[in-house]
C-alpha cells in the first residue's frame, strides 16, 4: 500500500502537474521536484508506489501522471460536502470555487443561528443544523467540514459520524475524539503562525 | 535543538493545556496524550526537549508547562501581521479574534482591487498593496499571510521578502520559490480534502 507521507504529497504533485499540463507534455523528476518543493529522489520514490517510472532522459508523461494520481486519490468522481458553521470562515469556504476543480461539491451549509438560517451563500441557503442527519441522507453527503467555534466542534463531529459522515475536515482549534472508522484531517491556522513564530525566535 | 516534528506538536499541546488550565493544576502525560491525539511516550519525549520532566505519579504543572511552551515558541510578545488579499478568505482571517490570544496582531490588510481599498474590515481599512513596503516598515510587520489567487502568490511573496517579511503563511494553492532566509508554512484546504478522498477510496 502507499505510505501516508506519499499520499500527503500527491495533491501537491497534482497542483504542479495541473499548472504544467497546458504548456508541457513531459516533465522530469527534477522539474517536478523544484515545483513541488521536495527533492527529486523523493519524487521518483513516490511515483514508484503508483507504478509510474518515467523514461530515463525523457521523464514522465504529464497527462498520464495526472490521471494516475487522480485515480489513486479517488478524484475521478464528485464528493458531496456539507459545511457546518456559516460564520466568517464557513461562508468563505462556501463561496470558494477552487473545490469544484477537485470534485468537491459543497451541497449544504448549516448553522444553529436563527438569524442566519435562510440567508443565501453562493447559490445555497443556510439551513438549520437540526436537519443535519436528514440533509446528509437526502444528498448523499460524504465529507463534513467543521467551521464552528471550538466549543461546538466535538458535538458536531459526533452528529456527523452518527449521520454516517466518516470523513471530516476540522477547522476548529480543538482535537476531536472519534471512533476508529472516522477519519479526520485538522487544519489550525494559529498553529501555523505559532510555528512561524518559533522559527523567528530560533533564528 | 528541538526537532521540527516536536515544534509542530507544541501548539497542539498549548491548545490542550489552555483548555485545561481553568479546571486543573496538574496533568499526566496520559491525559495530555489523549487530549492532543498522540501517544503518551511521545508527550514525555517532546517535553524532555523543553527540559520538562514532570513528577512521577503527579504529572506536569499545567501553568508552568504552558509558559515553557509559550517561551519556546516565542509567544511571549506580539507579532504584527499583514494579510495580503482582502477577498473571501482574507476578510474572514482579518475578522478572526482567535489570533489575538496567541499574540498575532493583524495590523494591516492590503489588496489591489480599487473597489475594495478604503473599505472597513474589523476595525481596519483595506489599504493598497502598492504601499506594502511602507506599511511593513511603519508598523514593524514580521509575518505575512498570502490570501490572493494562486497566480499572484509568487509576486506577493517576492514583495514581502523584499520588504523584509521573512515569515510567510501561504494559503494560495501554489508552491512558492523563495530564498533560504524566507520561512514558509503552507495550508491548502483542497489538499486536505484530497487526502480525505484517498482514505475513502482505500477503505
Ligand atoms: N475565521 C478565520 O479566519 C479562522 C482562522 C482560524 C481558525 N478558525 C476557526 O474556524 C472556526 C470558525 O471561525 P469563524 O471565524 O468563522 O467563527 P464565527 O463565529 O464567525 O462562525 C461560527 C459559526 O458557527 C455557528 N455555530 C456554532 N455552533 C454551531 C453548531 N453546533 N452547529 C452549527 N453551527 C454552529 C455559529 O452560529 C457561527 O455562525 C472557529 O473554530 C475558529 O477558531 C477561523
Ligand atoms: N476561500 C476559501 O475558503 C479558500 C479555501 C482554500 C484556499 N483558498 C485560497 O485562498 C486564496 C484566496 O481565496 P479567496 O476565496 O479569498 O479569493 P478571492 O478572489 O475572494 O480573494 C482574493 C483577493 O486577492 C486580491 N488580489 C489579487 N491579486 C493581488 C495582489 N497581487 N496583491 C494583493 N491582493 C491581490 C483580489 O483583489 C481579491 O480581493 C486563493 O488562492 C484560494 O485558492 C481559499
Structural notes for this entry:
The structure is a homodimer of 203-residue chains. The first copy, chain A, has 203 residues and is of the alpha/beta class. Chain A folds into two domains: 4-71, Arc Repressor Mutant, subunit A (Orthogonal Bundle), CATH 1.10.10.10; 79-191, NAD(P)-binding Rossmann-like Domain (Rossmann fold, 3-Layer(aba) Sandwich), CATH 3.40.50.720. The first copy, chain A, is 44% helix and 18% strand. Chain A contains eight helices and ten strands. Chain A has helices at 4-20, 29-36, 40-49, 62-73, 88-95, 132-139, 150-162, 189-202, and strands at 26-27, 60-61, 79-84, 104-111, 120-121, 124-125, 127-128, 143-146, 167-170, 183-186. In chain A, the strands form three sheets. Chain A has a six-stranded parallel beta sheet with strand order 7-4-3-8-9-10, sandwiched between helices. The first copy, chain A, has a two-stranded antiparallel sheet with strand order 1-2. A two-stranded antiparallel ribbon of chain A has the order 5-6. In chain A, helix 5 (88-95) links the parallel strand 3 (79-84) and strand 4. In chain A, helix 1 crosses helix 4 (62-73) and helix 2 packs across helix 3. The longest helix of chain A has 17 residues, at 4-20. The radius of gyration of chain A is 20 Å and the shape is globular. The first copy, chain A, starts with a helix and ends with a helix. The mean pLDDT of chain A is 92. At the A-B interface, helix 1, helix 2, helix 5, strand 9 and helix 8 of A face helix 1, helix 2, helix 5, strand 9 and helix 8 of B. The complex binds nicotinamide-adenine-dinucleotide (NAD) (2 copies). One nicotinamide-adenine-dinucleotide (NAD) sits between chains A (84-90, 110-113, 116, 129, 147-150, 152, 156, 171-173, 189) and B (92-93, 96, 98).
Amino acid at each position: 500500500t502507499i505510505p501516508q507521507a506519499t499520499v500527503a504529497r500527491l495533491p501537491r504533485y497534482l497542483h504542479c502537474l495541473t499548472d504544467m499540463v497546458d504548456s508541457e507534455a513531459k516533465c522530469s523528476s527534477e522539474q517536478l521536484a523544484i515545483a513541488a518543493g521536495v527533492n527529486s529522489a523523493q519524487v521518483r520514490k513516490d511515483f514508484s508506489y503508483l507504478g509510474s517510472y518515467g523514461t530515463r532522459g525523457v521523464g514522465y508523461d504529464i497527462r498520464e501522471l495526472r490521471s494516475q494520481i487522480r485515480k489513486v486519490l479517488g478524484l475521478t468522481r464528485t464528493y458531496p460536502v456539507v459545511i457546518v458553521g456559516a460564520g466568517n470562515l464557513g461562508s468563505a469556504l462556501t463561496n470558494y470555487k477552487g473545490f469544484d476543480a477537485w470534485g468537491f461539491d459543497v451541497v449544504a451549509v448549516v448553522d444553529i443561528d436563527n438569524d442566519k438560517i435562510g440567508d443565501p451563500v453562493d447559490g445555497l441557503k443556510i439551513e438549520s443544523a437540526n436537519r443535519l442527519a436528514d440533509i446528509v441522507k437526502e444528498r448523499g453527503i460524504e465529507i463534513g467540514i467543521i467551521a464552528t467555534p471550538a466549543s461546538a466542534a466535538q458535538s458536531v463531529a459526533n452528529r456527523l459520524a452518527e449521520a454516517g459522515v466518516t470523513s471530516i475536515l476540522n477547522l476548529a482549534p480543538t482535537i476531536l475524539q472519534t471512533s476508529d472508522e472516522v477519519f479526520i484531517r485538522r487544519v489550525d491556522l494559529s498553529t501555523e503562525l505559532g510555528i512561524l513564530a518559533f522559527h523567528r525566535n530560533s533564528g
